[in-house]
Each structure stands twice: as C-alpha cells, then as structure tokens.
Design a protein that fits this description.
By secondary structure, the chain is an alpha+beta fold. It contains four helices and seven strands. It has a four-stranded antiparallel beta sheet with strand order 1-2-3-4, sandwiched between helices. This is Protein N-acetyltransferase, RimJ/RimL family.
C-alpha cells in the first residue's frame, strides 16, 4: 500500500529513521494496556515491532505503512494489511495504531477505510479482519465504523480477542 493516500494521510514504507518518531507510542502506557505479552521497556517493544515490520516486508506477508500528515509531514501512526493466521486459517488483517497525540481525530478510521478500499479494489481478499482485544473499545468502534462486525471471539497470541470482519 505504499504511496497510497487518503484525505489527510500519506501511506509510506516504514524506514529505520521512523523509529524515534514512533517510540512515543510505546512510551505511553495506554497504548499497551489491552495487549499482554509485550515488552515493558519501550525501546525493546519498539525494536521488536520494527523488526517484525521489516520481516513482513521481506516475506511479502503484508506490512504496516507509516502514516504521514499531508499538511505537516509528521508521523501520525501506522496502518496496513497483514497476513495473519487465526485458528489455523490465513486471513488478511487491517491493522492500525495511532500516536497518542493524534487520538480521537479520526485518523485510525481514515487509515482503516483506505486499507479496506485498496484491498477490495485490488481483489486481494473477499473478506478482511481486524484482531481486537476484547476490552479495546476505541479500536472496536473504529472497526464498526469501517463496516465490520464481530464474526467470532477467540484467543490470539494469549490474548482474548474479537475477530471483526467485513466482506466484499
């Protein structure tokens, strides 16, 4: 999805130089409150996330995009389409995370909506999911606003989650 854009966002490939700009996400305890098993040290958590992003790029198993504001050229968040395995089934997930200073401004929905549109326009899947921890109400609201519904609940990476889905 690199070089895509929405009304306010540019979707770019994540680079190593984005690390320092993304680190505040991991420094904010609210960002990891819903997901257990993450490193407590923000630098370690950010390194692990970036390592996985670059690994996905190499594997061509989807990937997160750095979301930059068209107006300010500042990093707003990460979003993308990720190949995931849920209950032994391969799925294409819409993933999104926004830096805390940009919460509640519609960026997560804008990014998720663009991910959905690109996936369906390119016929990459006839169904998309979002894996959302059962207590993460803000992310659930974003998924619902994006036309998704709770398909089922399960455990994913030792976390209780709802699998939100949307079909073509």
């Amino acid at each position: 999805m690199f070089n895509e854009e929405s009304e306010r966002l540019l979707f770019k490939k994540v680079t190593k130089s984005d690390f320092e700009r993304w680190l505040p996400f991991h420094q904010e305890p609210l960002c990891s409150q819903y997901w257990s098993g993450l490193p407590k040290d923000p630098i370690t958590a950010c390194k692990e996330q970036f390592s996985r992003i670059f690994e996905r790029y190499e594997e061509q198993s989807g990937g997160m995009n750095a979301l930059f504001s068209k107006e300010t050229n500042k990093l707003i968040g990460l979003a993308g389409l990720l190949v995931q395995h849920v209950n032994n089934k391969e799925e294409l997930e819409i993933g999104y995370s926004i830096l805390p200073e940009y919460w509640r401004q519609g960026y997560a929905f804008e990014a998720a909506k663009k991910c959905k549109e690109v996936a369906f326009e390119n016929k990459w899947a006839d169904s998309l999911i979002s894996i959302i921890q059962v207590n993460n109400i803000p992310s659930q609201k974003t998924a619902l606003k994006n036309g998704m519904y709770i398909d089922f609940s399960t455990t994913y990476k030792d976390n209780p989650v709802h699998i939100f889905r949307i079909k073509v």
